[in-house]
Specification:
heterodimer, A: 116 residues, mainly beta, B: 113 residues, 6-stranded mixed β-sheet
Chain lengths: 116, 113
């Protein structure tokens, strides 16, 4: 297992276009998280899944954002009608079930989105 | 609501000097505390974590941190900094081993030779 994979690494898009990012978690991890990190800031929580269920969404996740995790495996984050303010690094992380009793929170390398 | 404050935006130290990065948290219950390091354009790497027990925790790359409940602090230290330690450092708090994390704004470490 090579860790959490995110694709693409970089995305440049024109304002108003839709973009979709993919995250492949560590295979035995049932929890998957999305964070957004703007320049000079720490990551901010967007949403998380336990298996295929989306259990929590931040108020940062406007109606233009949607995340899915079909079959509890990989996840996609879609941004519709992108705005310049969406430019950021989008980070994905995964973790094993709580009952494992060990800390296994692992981040991917992120997708850097630039909206021009 | 939980929050993290990292008072120092930018710190410069000489190679071989000691380092302390400050972190203060706000959380209503027993916090789960973390330090992460991020190199430019990269994801986050866990340096160390505190869940319970000994308040002085050892991490990777020679880093350690001390949890002080009375001061709501979890400062990161390293006795002798190497040029390769130059990066952004983030303190984070969570409610459990697999809960969402709340991060501070980070401290950028510059190391001079």
């Amino acid at each position: 297992d090579t860790g959490v994979s995110q694709d693409p690494r970089h995305k440049i898009t024109k304002r108003g276009q839709n973009v979709t990012f993919r995250c492949d978690p560590i295979s035995e991890h049932n929890r998957l998280y999305w964070y957004r990190q703007t320049l000079g800031q720490g990551p901010e929580f967007l949403t998380y899944f336990q298996n295929e269920a989306q259990l929590e969404k931040s108020r940062l996740l406007s109606d233009r954002f949607s995340a899915e995790r079909p079959k509890g495996s990989f996840s996609t984050l879609e941004i519709q009608r992108t705005e310049q303010g969406d430019s950021a690094m989008y980070l994905c992380a995964s973790s094993p079930p709580r009952d494992r009793g060990v800390y296994g929170y692992t981040f991917g390398s992120g997708t850097r989105l630039t909206v021009v | 609501a939980q929050s993290v404050t990292q008072p120092d935006i930018h710190i410069t130290v000489s190679e071989g000097a000691s380092l302390e990065l400050r972190c203060n948290y706000s959380y209503g219950a027993t916090p789960y505390l973390f330090w992460y390091v991020q190199s430019p354009g990269q994801g986050l790497q866990l340096l160390l974590k505190y869940f319970s027990g000994d308040t002085l925790v050892q991490g990777i790359k020679g880093f350690e941190a001390e949890f002080k409940r009375s001061q709501s602090s979890f400062n990161l230290r390293k006795p002798s900094v190497h040029w390769s330690d130059a990066a952004e450092y983030f303190c984070a708090v969570g409610a459990g081993t697999a809960s969402k994390l709340t991060f501070g704004t980070g401290t950028r470490l510059q190391v001079t030779l």
